[in-house]
């Protein structure tokens, strides 16, 4: 059944269940017979496969086709409720009565209430709190096409250009006021008080352009500022006559007839971003001796590389506009007095590779104002964040001497703190989730009580809802992070409709068609992760050390396995030992594939070797599993397991040394939000195999710049890797083709230069949008404030 219109679907299903009652009942009876209240998409598809095998006549029935478009089913003795996802981020809910076979559409509220009843056994509470953000969006235009999701700024530019044209034509002065308020430390950057209306601004621009066109483009701005200031212009239009002329021309075009392109080009030059505060309270944030600790992983690397790229881009843009101002970027994290050998007890730490960027650490305090001295899990930090936001705000203002121009939140906790500070300071807020916990834990919302003592999901999911709705813009690394695929739900999409029984029911949480979403993919540090062929930059003095790591003797607690045939290429993986990373899964595939074992050795860099050194129970279970697999498959001579964290320079050179040996990289995760190690490996020239679930599906062009693998079909993945090594042995140029294509893919789409350019443009456009449109969001803000005070605050208290 191909119909996507819900009314057509309901009509077709109604006809099917009434005219082919016996066949429809057989299908539903099988679902009931599975004995589960909730069936996920994979369960439903397995059921369809079974039913088709049993009876070919039902293969293309309307109900079977509906089940293939069903995200989940909720079932009791009388009803089957179906959640249909007919297109990305658009759901429709149906129910079928098993006795009468009557079918009808139900609301999201009715569907969620039924799930609550099944999960708890309680009768529906008619006064359950419902969170509904939809009424606040009715006056706002949204994206219409699935292909537009994650490209919100393009839509916003069109919308802004149209509204700006209308506003200017009606004498609106908001653009003028926006330009007048651009300043730094009390110094105006664009306009002084000489110009008091749009009419005067247009006239002044025309007067200024006449002499500017007669001056050589390279004429320094210092020689022009006297005449320009008399007309109402301050330094900030450009470093020389050519740049000033071009910037003023863009503004004049906007005043005459705003277009999306001219708007973006002009705003990208407005010197409105010279200071940024980046919030990341959780974990151990630092530049050394922290990676591999709990809650401290890829986001630390991401943020440090982000800071370097943003500072460089900010400096270049300010210089191009003729402003002698040093940009200020700070990462605001937690100060931990019991630092355990790290720098986490130091208030200020300069960030290496930057001009002025720093890590600013602020401690958690309890209700009595006492500093919390020890590390705290990210799942237990909620009681401290409100006090932390106030303390961090004071420290930021003291450090910068003014409000920051942009606040960027990271993870659930950092995004909530960013929301609190941005609201108080009236600053543009950007959110970066990295990975939303709700999408990583199936049914964690429905069964939140079962996990509350350990994970406190009630507070976290509430914080997520508040922060994502407060944010002026949200950036993600991939499309899937926002809206998934045709078969899978996106991380943000999962917050559209959900329920936490006994707390509240979300009937409209976030809309992924909102233009606040933008895809801005990061890269790998180009000073560390570069091509194996770049011999002049290679760190070849590290070769003996890396050779010993890979081929040396076994060392208790550091290395297990001794590679017998060192001439084989190496299949390499590097990850934290978490269930989601699926490292034992990869080792099991390898152990069960004689051909892959014949073609290549396996190198694993993950966690610890000694279970006693594990950071938590999950890692301990993963360590035990790896030791069991070594013994089960007899892997001692073919697998090398390093239980240590590699410094980045060593990791970068290891990628290149493995490329020298015609190896490959594999990322076998059950789900990977982005895939930074995938970027690192491809940047180094290693052909890469990576999970199809998450970011790598977009990073890799399957069969061209790498390969997708399905971690739920491990033996097929092993066969694909074996086939690659077999072909490379027969056709050496094939390895070169994949290596070159991988590097080209990264250069084209995944570099920090591209990232920083886009981020600076987005921050300007959304800051202007916030200024131009802020009054229209007042009702939303008040609603979220009430939600925060009445719902989040009580949930954040952890006994």
How would you explain this protein's 3D organization?
It is a single chain. The chain is α/β, with parallel strands linked by helices. The chain folds into 3 domains: 6-106, Nuclear Transport Factor 2, Chain: A (Roll), CATH 3.10.450; 275-482 and 756-796, 3-Layer(aba) Sandwich (Rossmann fold), CATH 3.40.50.2000; 535-750, Glycogen Phosphorylase B (Rossmann fold), CATH 3.40.50. The protein is 45% helix and 14% strand. The protein contains 29 helices and 25 strands. It has an 8-stranded mixed sheet, sandwiched between helices. It has a 7-stranded mixed sheet with strand order 19-22-21-20-23-24-25, sandwiched between helices. A 5-stranded antiparallel sheet has the order 1-2-3-4-5, sandwiched between helices. β23 (664-667), α24 (676-684) and β24 (688-691) form a beta-alpha-beta unit. α26 (714-730) crosses α27 (732-749). The longest helix is centred in the middle third of the chain and has 23 residues, at 298-320. The chain starts with 5 loop residues before the first helix and ends with a helix. The mean pLDDT is 94.
> What distance separates the N and C termini?
52 Å
Which blocks of ≥5 consecutive residues have pLDDT under 50?
none
For the record, what CATH class of the largest domain applies?
Answer: Alpha Beta
What is the rounded Rg? 29 Å
Named CATH topology of the largest domain:
Rossmann fold
- Structure classification: alpha/beta
Order of strands across the main sheet: 11-12-10-9-13-14-15-18
Total DSSP helices: 29
Shape: globular
Largest sheet: 8 strands, mixed
CATH superfamily grouping of the largest domain: Glycogen Phosphorylase B
**What's the structural domain tally?**
3
């Amino acid at each position: 059944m191909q119909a996507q219109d819900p009314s057509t679907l309901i009509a077709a299903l109604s006809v099917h269940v009434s005219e082919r009652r016996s066949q429809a009942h057989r299908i539903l009876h099988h679902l009931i017979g599975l004995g589960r209240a909730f069936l996920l998409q994979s369960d439903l598809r397995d059921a369809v496969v079974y039913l088709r095998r049993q009876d070919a006549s039902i293969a293309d029935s309307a109900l079977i086709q509906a089940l293939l478009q069903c995200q989940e089913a909720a079932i009791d003795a009388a009803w089957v409720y179906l959640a249909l996802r007919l297109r990305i981020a658009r759901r429709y809910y149906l129910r079928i009565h098993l006795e009468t076979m009557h079918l009808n559409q139900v609301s999201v509220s009715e569907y969620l209430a039924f799930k609550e009843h099944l999960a708890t056994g309680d009768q529906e509470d008619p006064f359950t709190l419902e969170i509904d953000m939809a009424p606040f969006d009715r006056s706002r235009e949204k994206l219409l096409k699935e292909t537009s999701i994650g490209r919100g700024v393009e839509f916003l530019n069109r919308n802004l250009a149209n509204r700006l044209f209308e506003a200017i034509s009606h004498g609106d002065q908001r653009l003028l006021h926006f330009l007048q308020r651009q300043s730094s430390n009390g110094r105006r950057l664009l306009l002084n008080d000489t110009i008091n209306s749009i009419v005067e601004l247009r006239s002044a621009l025309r007067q200024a352009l006449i002499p500017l066109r007669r001056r050589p483009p390279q004429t320094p701005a210092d020689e022009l500022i006297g005449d320009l200031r008399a007309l109402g212009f301050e330094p900030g239009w450009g470093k020389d006559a050519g740049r000033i002329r071009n910037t003023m021309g863009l503004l004049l075009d906007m005043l005459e007839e705003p277009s999306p392109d001219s708007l973006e080009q002009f705003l990208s030059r407005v010197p409105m971003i010279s200071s940024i505060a980046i919030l990341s309270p959780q974990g151990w944030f630092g530049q050394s001796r922290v990676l591999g600790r709990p809650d401290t992983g890829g986001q630390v690397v991401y943020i440090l590389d982000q800071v370097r790229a943003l500072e460089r881009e900010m400096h270049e843009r300010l210089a191009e506009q003729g402003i002698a101002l040093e940009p200020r970027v700070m990462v605001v994290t937690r100060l931990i007095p019991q630092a355990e050998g790290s720098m986490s007890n130091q208030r200020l730490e300069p960030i290496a590779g930057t001009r002025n960027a720093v890590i600013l650490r602020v401690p958690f305090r309890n209700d009595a104002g006492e500093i919390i001295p020890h590390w705290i899990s990210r799942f237990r930090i909620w009681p401290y964040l409100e006090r932390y936001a106030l303390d961090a705000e004071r420290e930021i203002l003291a450090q910068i001497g003014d409000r920051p121009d942009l606040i960027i939140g990271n993870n659930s906790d950092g995004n909530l703190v960013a929301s609190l500070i941005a609201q108080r300071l009236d600053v543009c807020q950007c959110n970066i989730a990295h990975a939303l916990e709700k999408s990583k834990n199936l049914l964690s919302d429905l069964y939140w009580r079962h996990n509350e003592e350990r994970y406190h999901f009630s507070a976290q999911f509430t914080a997520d809802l508040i922060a994502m709705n407060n944010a002026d813009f949200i950036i993600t690394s991939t499309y899937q992070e926002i809206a998934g695929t045709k078969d899978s739900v996106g991380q943000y999409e999962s917050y559209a409709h959900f329920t936490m029984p006994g707390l509240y029911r979300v009937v409209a949480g976030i809309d992924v068609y909102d233009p606040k979403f933008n895809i801005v993919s990061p890269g790998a540090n180009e000073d560390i992760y570069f091509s194996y062929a770049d011999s002049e930059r290679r760190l070849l003095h590290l070769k003996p050390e890396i050779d010993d790591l890979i081929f040396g003797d076994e060392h208790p607690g550091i290395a297990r396995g001794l590679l017998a045939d060192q001439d084989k290429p190496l299949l390499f993986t590097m990850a934290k030992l978490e269930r989601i990373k699926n490292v034992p899964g990869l080792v099991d595939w390898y152990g069960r594939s004689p051909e892959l074992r014949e073609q290549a050795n396996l190198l694993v860099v993950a966690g610890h070797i000694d279970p006693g050194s594990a950071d938590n129970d999950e890692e301990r279970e993963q360590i035990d599993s790896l030791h069991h697999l070594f013994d089960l498959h007899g892997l001692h001579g073919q697998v090398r397991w390093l239980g240590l964290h590699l410094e980045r320079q060593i990791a970068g050179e290891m990628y290149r040394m493995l490329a020298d040996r015609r190896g490959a990289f594999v990322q076998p995760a059950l789900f990977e939000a982005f895939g930074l190690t995938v970027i690192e490996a491809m940047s180094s020239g290693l052909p890469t195999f990576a999970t199809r679930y998450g970011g790598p599906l977009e990073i890799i062009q399957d069969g061209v710049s790498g390969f997708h693998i399905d971690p739920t079909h491990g033996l097929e993945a092993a066969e694909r890797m074996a086939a690659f090594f077999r072909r490379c042995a027969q056709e050496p140029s094939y390895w070169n083709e994949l290596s070159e294509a991988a590097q080209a893919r990264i250069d084209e789409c995944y570099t920090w230069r591209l990232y920083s350019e886009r981020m600076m443009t987005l921050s300007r456009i959304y800051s202007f949008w916030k200024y131009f449109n802020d009054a229209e969001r007042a009702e939303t803000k008040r609603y979220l404030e009430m939600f925060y005070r009445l719902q989040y605050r009580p949930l954040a208290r952890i006994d």
